[in-house]
Target: Aldo/keto reductase
Amino acid sequence: MATQETKQAQRTVKLGSTGPEVFPLGLGCMGMSGMYGATDDAESIRTIHAAIDRGVTLLDTGDFYGMGHNEMLVGRAIAGRRERVQLSVKFGALRGPDGSWMGMDMRPAAVKTFAAYSLKRLGVDVIDIYRPARLDPAVPIEDTIGAIADLVKAGYVRHIGLSEMGVETLRRAHRVHPIVDLQIEYAVSTRGPEAAIFPALNELGISATLYGVLSRGLLTGSKPKGQGDYRAYLPRFAGANGEKNQDSVAALQRFAQERRMTPGQLAIAWVFARQPGFVPVVGAKTEAQLDDALGALARPLSKEDVAALESLVTIAGDRYGAEQMHHLDSERR
Model:
């Protein structure tokens, strides 16, 4: 007899009106390249293999994660499994040899150069969904999307996505070429997209892949681990905000325990309940974290649970530092 999770695994979600069918939960691979502290490549590859074996199809990476390390890691993991996955690749962030961030470059020539290197590092002939990581204020979005459209025509890219873009940019991009999904942060603690972005997506027939559904581990009680963990610099984890937010985290943990769920499963199940047509992307670094996340598929929340959870969780602090928030197109009003 099929289990509830097996039944869920057989369900797929279509990304936009023209995009691919994907498993209802995606795997975000950024954390496998050091953004959240120490990692182990062998463990990361085991986790990707386990995800594929459990039915997960969408793998999300970026050419600037670990300065190319993440793409090479994903490339090794999908060797011999390419036809079972869809690769979502973000591009365009400029980084120095010291790891510093130096802005974005979305000029057409740069777009095609980034794509050439990503194809090589991933060891593939085509990228399933290619997306600018952020808006480059110096380059019209029409020029960037036009360059990716050229890559689609040439067979190097299958679909075009966006990341952290606002409504006006979405509309302008979609007029150049169909956009299949917007990648945006969304969680019970991060509900900004509900106001204007999600209604625009529904109007345009664009889907969403939702990252940060665990608020970078905040909702599960995870805390920054060591100097290499950039969460130590984020407003929700630091100082008075970090201390204040522990009350909401503790309330969420009690709520989950009462329903025999883990905090992670509860946070993911809330996203499924709130946005059933969109795809959460969970940054599991280990097989145990992956198993926990997949457990949410079999634990749907009632409308009453959704409302009760929302009344418990009040998170202080922005999701990024002030400078990053200022440059996010998705945060423009």
Remarks:
- Confidence is low (pLDDT under 50) at residues 1-6.
- Residues 1 and 215 are 35 Å apart (CA to CA).
- The radius of gyration is 19 Å.
